[in-house]
Amino acid sequence: MDMALEVAVAAIKIFIVVNVVQLVVAYLIYVERKVIAHAQLRLGPMRVGWHGLLQPIADGLKLFLKEDIVPDKADRVVFVLAPVMVLVPALVVYAVLPFSATFYITQINIGLFFVLAISSLGVFGVVMAGWASNSKYSLLGALRSAAQMLSYEIFLGFSVIGPLMLAGSLNLQEIVHAQRDVWFVFYQPVAFIVFFVAALAETNRAPFDLPEAETELVAGFHTEYSGMKFAFFFLAEYASMMVISTIGIVLFFGGWEGPDFIPLPGFVWYVLKLSVFMFVFIWLRATLPRYRYDQLMRVGWKFMFPLVMLNIFLTGFLKYLFL
Amino acid sequence: MVGVANVSRIDQQSTLHGTEELVINMGPQHPSTHGVLRVILKLDGETVNDLDCDIGYLHRGTEKIGENINYTMFIPYTDRLDYIAAPSNNLAWVTAVEKFFDWEIPMRAQYIRSMVGELSRIASHLLWLATHALDIGAMTVFLWCFREREMVLDLFETAFGGRLTVNAFRLGGLHEDVPEKFLQLTQEFVDIFPSRVDDYETLLTNNRIWLQRTRDVGIISAEDAMDLGLTGPIIRGSGVKWDLRRAKPYAAYPYLDFVVPIGENGDIYDRYLVRIEELRQSTYIIQQCLEQLPGGPASCKTPRTIKPPEGEIYHSIENPKGEFGFYIVSDGTTTPYRVRIRPPSFINLGGLKKLCVGQLVADVVAIIGSIDIVLGECDR
Predict the structure, then answer these.
(1) Is the pLDDT of residue B5 over 50?
(2) The pLDDT value given to residue B6
(3) Is position B186 within any domain?
(4) Most buried one in A50, B96, B266, B274, CB count within 10 A?
(5) Would residue B288 count as lying in a domain?
(6) Which tens digits make up the pLDDT trace of A137-188?
(7) Is there a contact between B69 and B93 (Cβ–Cβ < 8 Å)?
(8) Per residue in A105-131, is it b (16+ CB within 10 Å) or e — as a string?
(9) Residue B103 lies in a domain
(10) Is residue B30 part of a domain?
(11) How many percent of chain B have pLDDT more than 70?
(12) Which residues on A lie below 8 Å from B361 (Cβ)?
């Protein structure tokens, strides 16, 4: 009986989280369009609803009704499977994310490891999409993303080791509890910078949005996709943006906890911090040009990799001395 | 044993088949080939081994049209060559035809011609900066530049009625004197514009990513640039001080003070700096024109039918994109015997292969942007 209840509660939570995430992602795209528009002296969407508030719904409907084209020469099975392979890992990760002290789907003691493992599956979908499209532009785009996501996965992995050593746990809840007094960003500024840059690259956001560099590769790996399949890639990109931001908040900014003198519920703190992260993501896209492929690799391997290694060494050294 | 066997099999495969060049067809409908340029790229991974330009998708037979209509009727056709800077083309045509005669063009017309020519240079460079930055991924610059370009187009509209294809000048001067409002609005634009150029520069000039993308990319030496006959900001970016406004002054340029900016390395970044400085210099020239603008008629007396004497003439001016010239052969009738256009885009595009081979795909886009081509004049 207890078991059934637990399953039911979990199912309801999953239902809520998945749907809310989809909705939030749709509105995130709206916010991005608005913020970038205002940075560029435009108004952005204005026609559908008050200040274009219903635009995401209109967009969703449009994508849903579009003709779903599979190119003749494409590998049909893989072509259809690829968007699913991208979206599912991006959503599965939400299973372990703590949104507040009490609201989460599940709590496992290797939470962080789970996030890294599952989110790196997304790259398979990208490679599959590029390969199955049977188009040169898609293939080049997919090759780029594969190289980019794999290398930045490494820096991302190493950059979380610093906070991990301080917290002494892989459990996301316990990492948050370890920051009751001081946020880890103050102990681990270098790790945070590396984490943030790697997060940008990992989610294919500007200035590392090479895989979908419109001006060179048309639309990169999803050039040949249309309709809902295209929407899946889009949803996945923004869903993983939120995942990576949540991880950043949990590791470096005390998760759902805020300063004690401002009594706000944990969930509100989480949303506030997430909004700041999202805004920075969008802001960067409005401001910066795009790196070139080889420069991206150079930044990663020659600059960030030694830096993050040094950081791990120093953290360990200081921890041994003082703690 | 299994491992060893596998390795040798892979080795055999790679020696049997080798690696193949990837041929990519970029354009004519590609977002960053600026119109209908088609580039066939041969890639080794992401490195360009060879490339081939295919042009002619916008060919309209402008030169042949010129042989069948009279000299005045051809002016609007020149608008459609480099349609980003239409008044400059008009200026090239009218000054070329005027070379057949010994008309005294009124100074007021000369000054307005220079002023509008510089405005069109600003419009052209703004469109270049906008799209070039967009190609490299900086979206915001695009819309900021269009804000000011809109102001310039509004100025054209005030003075001549048209915005893009303005048909600005006539043989012997202007069609009509410009309205007073045009001069006022131009003054307002000149006051506001330098600070806007500063705005663009804050986004790009010292931006690390911009520097990495443009420095030491697409280098061309001064000798190579001269051998290929490149002109305009490209050759100035390579350090050659060649500007027809100084070398063969026309319109009111002999009386105007300005600096011809040059670069050092001849890379994309130098071309960028040269064009940014030209934006400032053009503003300075317009300011001088406004201050020195003489009164008097805006056109000299010209015969009702323009019949140049038999002979041939080549005249070129400094368009925003380089040397823009007309070679006209007259047989003494009202229509030219032959019109030949020397478009800077066509000849500058000849340098593309030299600039691109050995670079990466992403650089090809940046290099095409830095050459600043308009297919309208390239294909004619």
Answers:
(1) no
(2) 47
(3) yes
(4) B266
(5) yes
(6) 788 778 877 888 778 888 888 888 888 888 888 888 888 888 887 888 888 8
(7) no
(8) beeeeebbbbbbebbbebbbbbbbbbb
(9) yes
(10) no
(11) 94
(12) 140, 216-217
